[in-house]
Amino acid sequence: MAKKKKSDVTVEEKLRALYDLQLIDSRLDEIRNTRGELPLEVQDLEDEIVGLEKKNEKTSDEIKTLEHDINVKKEDIKQSESLIKKYTKQQDNVRNNREFEALSKEIEYQELEIQLSEKRIREFKAKIEHKNESLAKIGEKLDSYKEHLAHKKSELDKIVEETQKEEETLKAKAEEFSENIEPRLLKAYNKIRASVKNGLAVVPVERGASAGSYFTIPPQRQMEIALRKKIISDEHSGRILVDGELAAEEKEKMSGIIHG
Known about the structure:
Number of strands: 4
Mean pLDDT: 92
Strand order of the largest sheet: 2-1-4-3
Oligomer: single chain
Radius of gyration: 39 Å
Shape: rod-shaped
């Protein structure tokens, strides 16, 4: 049997196709909702771990820099001590007081340089101690977050595993059903779905109002919806409306496809 062109499809067939797609998407939403906040929690933990690892790396690099600075200062001290020995020895061979005083000033200067280098070394060591404490705290946090992440991932993987087959089947069905809906209508459907909290873009009329709404639909409008001659949207929510009978028929028809 030849496949109908989208332009030859009746309004009723379009409404049925849209509602069928809604039923599939609603089941997909249910499956995703069983995961609750777990995907977000996993993502947040992964982001926290990346941030802590960067902080850990940065702190480790800072410690290495400080250790390098300490070694530089130790070399400076050795150099100053070497110069003091040299100047002290030279004092034994001076010809006058002026030369002796000049060497004494050089020795004094080098002694001050040693004191300054020692002070800097103490400061660097204090900073290293502080940063090592930070590293220990970061390490503890990392271990805790990684353990928590492993637990959350395991929880999520278990839920995903239980529903993965059904989800993949439904996704394929949604794609298949989408192909039978004209692009303009499909675009409108997806836009409505994205804008409403519960993802319901096509809803039946129940007790004189669109499902989930308290706004009564005028009888004349209800009659037009029941005739299935044009696509009618709820003026309050923007959702596409179908009559209760059509909805019941499609739910029964789709039950085997969705849960089978």
